[in-house]
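> forwarded from #structure-qc
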């Protein structure tokens, strides 16, 4: 994972000393990724629209996922996205969601012959994911004996294509984006659905969280979220 910091400073009118909200994310296309020195993606565009509508100063930074989650949990005025909302994370953050609704899927290298029909069958294989990703918690809670952890998704994909792991966990929409870009992967087992959003530090003022939630709901209600999804080739689950 490249460590790329992008400061997108926006001044509040008449409030030069206003707190800057730190928005942390990772390389996880098509939701958040860097290209030619610019952070883009379907979740990033929603984040920018929300913050501009609130006229709130913010800074956007790409980090390895485990570090981003740790900072959001421990640093005031910090959120991490696009974050899967599960029971283990629920009370650790304040949530603004959904930036998307998606299902998890285990994928294999095309024509690898790895073909689990159930979760129990999948436990026979080595499954790759990223440190700090909620899929790690899923695998641990389901007693998967062979979990391979990487710093970022790019490394996990390389391991899968190189035959170093048998399966990889990712979101269904991310799998579809990688497949459409020519990555030689295919679905092996579809898992449960989940909401994804901003996971914000517990110290972030409720008033700001509520305003962010209201703006996100406006993006959903007026069709902006679906238009952003379409721009990135993402099918809406609603």
């Amino acid at each position: 994972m490249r460590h790329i910091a992008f400061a997108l400073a926006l001044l509040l009118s008449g409030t030069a000393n206003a707190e800057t909200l730190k928005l942390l994310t990772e390389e996880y296309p098509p939701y958040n990724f860097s290209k030619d020195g610019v952070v883009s993606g379907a979740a990033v565009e929603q984040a920018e629209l929300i913050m501009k509508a609130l006229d709130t100063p913010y800074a956007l930074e790409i980090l390895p996922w485990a570090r981003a989650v740790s900072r959001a949990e421990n640093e005031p005025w910090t959120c991490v996205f696009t974050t899967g909302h599960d029971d283990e994370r629920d009370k650790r953050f304040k949530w603004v969601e959904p930036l998307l609704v998606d299902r998890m899927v285990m994928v294999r290298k095309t024509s690898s012959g790895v073909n689990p029909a159930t979760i129990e069958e999948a436990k026979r294989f080595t499954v790759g994911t990223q440190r700090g990703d909620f899929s790690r918690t899923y695998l641990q809670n389901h007693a998967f004996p062979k979990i391979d952890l990487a710093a970022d998704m790019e490394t996990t994909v390389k391991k899968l294509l190189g035959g170093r792991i048998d399966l990889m966990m990712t979101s269904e929409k991310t799998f579809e984006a990688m497949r459409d870009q020519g990555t030689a992967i295919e679905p092996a087992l579809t898992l449960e659905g989940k909401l994804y959003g901003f996971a914000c530090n517990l110290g972030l003022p409720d008033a700001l969280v509520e305003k962010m939630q209201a703006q996100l709901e406006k993006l959903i209600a007026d069709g902006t979220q679906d238009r952003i999804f379409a721009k990135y080739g993402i099918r809406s689950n609603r």
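QC bot note: Confidence is low (pLDDT under 50) at residues 1-17. The longest helix spans residues 206-221.
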